[in-house]
Structure prediction request, 164 residues.
Amino acid sequence: MKLLFCAIAGRGVGYGHLNRCLSIAECARIHGLEAVFLVRRQGYAAIDAAWPSVILDLSFVGEAARTIAILDVAHPSVFSRLSDLDALLQTVGKLAHRLVAIDSLGRHSFAAALPAIPVDAVVIPYVGGAAFSGTSATMLVGPEYAVLSPDYANIPTRRINETA
Prediction:
């Protein structure tokens, strides 16, 4: 099985989306899965440091039946152009058997604005996330889907004050 990551990264967007995909890819590699990346030129340096020789572009040709594409592109700069997002999803959808989109919250949620989103699953990995209706995609919602560093495992539970 192969994972194809499509992430946004660069100045103005930051590298959080790409770093999340790198973390998922590292976990996948430990479990014997192959990971490849589809990114714009701006994200190359960050990937090169962790994953030499895996940069691909839209000319990627693989065995779609053995590929799951994970898209981490939820950002206002992408969200403002839903037609571009839909075109990206259609293109990447041809490269993979399954499409998984990592989404954002509230007004930055492209899946909420595009209910007919052509993906198999939508992941909203945040506290306060909520599934929405009108989509046939499987909804995976909540902090249990967040990708956190192992450093967080031993942090003591914070106390929540009931009153100010």
About this structure: The longest helix spans residues 16-30.
